Amino acid sequence: MRIIAAYLLAVLGGVASPTPADLKKILGAVESSADNAQLEEICKDLNGKNIEELVQLGSAKFASFGGGAAASSAPAAGAAPAAGAAAAKKEEPKKEEKKKVEEEEEEDAGAGAGMGGLFGDDEDY
């Protein structure tokens, strides 16, 4: 993967047909290396090909896999009716809940007092 990334970086840098030496230079800049045979094979395989088209073809293949969004939204949709029932049960103790929120706010207000100005809260504005 790092060899392909180096190849793409070379192309983005303006080198139309990167050589193994170009890839070695890029990989060396990030303290990485690769086998000469691998570098030569990548350069030989990609030489003369339009990288933008190859990326588009690869992206189209990934699109057929689907995405995580559809899979992750299904449990959320199933949980919605349960959340509605829980909300109906919580309507009664609103006063008690309000007291808890006020207590938490009071606790939060003093939370940064002992931080020694770590977040800049000790300055006068």
Summarize the structure in words.
With 125 residues, the protein is mainly alpha-helical. It is 67% helix and 0% strand. The mean pLDDT is 74.
Topology:
Layout: H1 2-12, H2 20-29, H3 36-46, H4 51-63, H5 68-90, H6 94-109
Helix pairs in contact: 1-2
In brief:
By secondary structure, the chain is mainly alpha-helical. It has helices at residues 2-12, 20-29, 36-46, 51-63, 68-90, 94-109.
Helicity, as a percent range? 55-70%
**What about the largest sheet?**
none
Spans of at least 5 consecutive residues whose pLDDT stays below 50 are none
Topology as a string of helices (H) and strands (E)? HHHHHH
- What's the overall average pLDDT, rounded? 74
- The geometry reads as elongated
Count of strand segments: 0
CA(first)-CA(last) distance: 52 Å
Keywords:
6 helices; 125 residues; mainly alpha; elongated
